[in-house]
Every structure is written in C-alpha cells, then in structure tokens.
Amino acid sequence: MIYFDHAATTPVSREVAALFVKLLDEYGNPDSLHQQGRKAAKLLEQSRSRIASMLKCSPEEILFTSCASESNSMAIVGYALANRNRGNRIITSNSEHSSTTAAMNFLESIGFEVVRLPIHEDGTIHAKDVQDALTKDTLLVSLIHVSNETGAITPIGEIADVVHTHPTCVFHADCTQSFGKVDIPFEKLDLMTMSAHKIHGMKGSALLKKKKNLVLQPLIFGGQQEQGMRGGTENAPVHIALAKTIRLALEGQKQTQAQMKKVRDHIIERLDEIPGAHVLSPENAASSILCLCFDAMTSQVMQNALDERGICVSAISTCESRSHQANPVLLNMGCSLKEATHNIRLSFSGENTIEEADAFIDSVKEIIQAYGLPL
C-alpha cells in the first residue's frame, strides 16, 4: 500500500505506540484521590508541563481536548460567548476547516456578526485584509494556518501583529495541518489548535493553547477537569503520550520537511508526462500537501481507481469526504468548476519515498490511458 493521505490521519509512530501500551496500566482516574488516581494525575501534569515548555507557554495555558474540531469550537464559540461584552464582530475566511465554519455559523445564528474574508488566488488571507476588516467591535479573528485542501500557508505571524494593535481583539490560529510541518510563531498566538493524530500520535488527543488571561465559556459541563473548561474523565493515556508525540514532531520537523519536499517536487516534475495534469496548490504551499488536477478524469473516479491499486489519496477534506460536490476551497481560489471536480489531494509524511511517487505517477498514467476521457 502507498499512503498519500497524511492530512486525514497518520500512522502512529512506534515510539508513541509503545508508550501508549505501557500507559494502559495507568488506568486510574486522574481526579481520584487514591494512589492510582494520583499517579495518573502526576503523569498527566508532567505531560502538560513538557508540552508547555516546547510551545513556550505556561502549563495552565494548555487545555487537553479530544480533537482539533473540539479545540476549534472551544476557541471560537467559547471565547465569543464569554466575551460578548467586548464586541460582536468576528473575522474569519471563506475557506476554513468545516469545524470552524460550523462554529461561525452557530455564532451567526445567535446574533454575532461574522465577516468571512475571501481568500486570494494564492489560497491565503493577507495581513492587510484583516487590517482593513478590523473595527472597534471586533473581538476575535480566527484563521487556518495551512489549508487542509491546498497546503496554502497564511502568514499568521504578520496577522497576529495586526490583530494585536486592537486591544479588544484576540487571534486564534488553526494549526492542525501546520504543526510539525512548518514553523509556527507560538508566542504570538492567543489561541492555537493542534491534534495528535496528524503528527503520528493517538486519535482522541488534541489541545488548545490558550493565553492564561483569556476567559472562555465551557462547552462541556459537569466537572472540574481542564480548569473547569471540559467536564468528563480525561483520557489520560493519550494525553500523556501527547508530550512525546509533540517532541518527536518538533525535533524531526526539518528532516520531515526535506523529505516531503523531495517527494512532492518529484511528482510535480513528472506531471509533464500526463496530458491535462496540473498543480492547483499555490507556489507557497506547505510541502506536506499537493493538490493536483487531472482533466481527463473526475476526482471520485480517479480516487477509486487509485484505491483499487493500493494507493490512498483524497479528493476533499476527510471531514467532508462524503460530499460529492465541487471542492469549495478551490472555487474560492478562483479555480474552474472542472478543476474543483477533477482534483486529487496528496498529503505526505517524512516516511514517503521517491519510489512511491514514481508508482503513483505510473499508476495515474495507466488509469488515464485506460479510462480517461479524451481532452
């Protein structure tokens, strides 16, 4: 099998898997007062402290969650509800992850003003776009760092600087697809989302980095866990393993970037061998994601044909994979309807190889020759 769908999820690293298996023996509830509970609580807080050190913040600024979608909801809805007295206007883009889009739709339904900035042809929001949209009533700006569809990199450092010129406004960045793949200005972000299973960690483990002076409205009620922000028994083993997951990702980031770029560039070089093939990802895209278009075949047909040959790819974000509509992010970038219905998303890890890239190109050539429509 060739796996080119790491933006959807990644295989768990051997080191993290071994640690998780060991941690299954630490089954105590971290909120229990007996010895087994105290041991689990100690390990959980050690993980929180280690993560905080790596992200250059204090332990109290790390909130464990179950997934990036929950972290996005907590950041966006939690902050808006708790700080409505500071303003009623929220800025985002028209091409966010579905969890952000849904959170914004909810806030709009209860009376918030949501401004959805259009992305440029490079797939990003520019700092000036945000600057022009800011008003005295703006309380939150929330943007994705690396597009989960195209790999486009929004300059969140510059945007954070702009946002912070407005004392009533804070900045949230969805770093789910950028963490461990491109540099992130952690210190500049008021709220930051990441997820373990995108960087060879465990599903069910994610975090929201929140500056300690920010107040959020809890979305899950019922307990004292996570500073009262997230009621319910913590999934201690996966959150304890998150510290090692993050350490491995950050330590190996440069090497991972280099290998992903090598594989991505090799595929792009060989596209000339395929009539009607072209790149939809912008030039500044992260090396982890490559969006391609094959004019002779629709996304679904190509995806199914590759799957039959043991090659895993996507045509749209996994959270919307059951939709057979045109890719909305590509349309928002100015791509044609044909491009938005004939696209394939490849997403890489540092474990992918040039040999796999060659096998992908050779398979696409054979598929189009056998089943493709004439151009």
Notes on the protein architecture:
- This protein is of the alpha/beta class.
- The chain is built from twelve helices and twelve strands.
- The strands form three sheets. The protein has a seven-stranded mixed β-sheet with strand order 2-8-7-6-5-3-4, sandwiched between helices.
- Helix 1 packs antiparallel against helix 7, helix 3 runs parallel beside helix 4 and helix 8 runs parallel beside helix 12.
- The radius of gyration is 21 Å and the shape is globular.
Summarize this entry quickly.
It contains twelve helices and twelve strands. By secondary structure, it is α/β, with parallel strands linked by helices.
Give the strand tally: 12
What is the overall silhouette?
globular
- Beta content comes to 5-15%
Radius of gyration: 21 Å
Uncertain residue ranges: none
**What level of helicity do the residues show?**
25-40%
Number of helices: 12
Structural class: alpha/beta
**SSE run:** EHHEHEHEHEHEEEHHEEHEHHEH
Biggest pleated sheet = 7 strands, mixed
Distance between the termini: 30 Å
- Side by side, the strands of the main sheet go 2-8-7-6-5-3-4
Mean pLDDT: 94
